[in-house]
Amino acid sequence: MLSGRDTVRLETVAQEALNEGAALTKILAADLAAERGAEDLADLVEASGLSVDALVNNAGAGRSGPWSDSTLADDRAFFRLLIDAPLTLTRTFLPGWRRRGRGALLNICSTGAFQPGPQTAVYYAAKAFLASWSLAFAQEEHRWLAVTTVCPGAMKTGFSSTAGKSDVPGAPFPEMVAKKAIRAWERGRGFFVPGFMNKILVFVSRMLPPAWMARAVQTLQLAVKNR
User: Fold this and answer.
1) Structure pTM?
2) Poorest-confidence range of 12-26, 57-71, 72-86, 158-172?
3) Helix or strand run (H / E) with residue 146
4) Which domains does the chain have, with CATH numbers?
5) Dist CA 36 CA 39 (whole Å)
6) Which of 55, 60, 59, 47 is nearest to 90 (CA)?
7) Which of 114, 66, 67, 131 is nearest to 213 (CA)?
8) Are the C-beta atoms of residues 18 and 25 closer than 8 Å to each other?
9) How far apart, in whole angstroms, are the C-alpha atoms of residue 185 and residue 26?
10) First to last CA, the chain
11) For residue range 56-98, what is the model confidence (pLDDT) as tens digits?
């Protein structure tokens, strides 16, 4: 099953999956940033009659600029998309996984989970929550549930332009990162940071004082935005 807001793009991805040998693809259009978006998607899955053995929490969006320039509605939409949706969908499918004694969960976080994010404050904070919860949940259920937390860095997608920024120079294409993430998931890795420089970034973020990282991130964000 594939879900997202853009049905046309979903149909393209579904066809690509069929071409690669997928037995079946079903499209369920949903806006996870909307009120009850995650609940509505869960209802659609139940109505489809299909059983979900594996869940990939990959929905995301970004915006660039001072937090004070955004609105409360923006904050709530981010909360629903980046925090509420992964928790709601995981909790929806968890009973079935427990009954069957198996399940798989892939949570796409970000290297931004490990430092404060001036100019993208709520996004970084939400990813920090998701990474912390994902790793804790994995430890609790590691005997029977395969949970992988993936923290990629910047990629060449429409994400940056939508957020009002330029792509980071040298950023990889998402297809390359996705293949590495799936391989890590299949191999049962609990935590995976794709790319050598991203691994260095996460290590440095954990070593340096948070205030230093906040200044560094703001400098980088403004530089990318003004390119």
Assistant:
1) 0.86
2) 158-172
3) strand 145-150
4) 52-225 (3.40.50.720)
5) 5
6) 55
7) 114
8) yes
9) 22
10) 38
11) 999 888 788 999 999 999 999 999 999 999 999 999 999 999 9
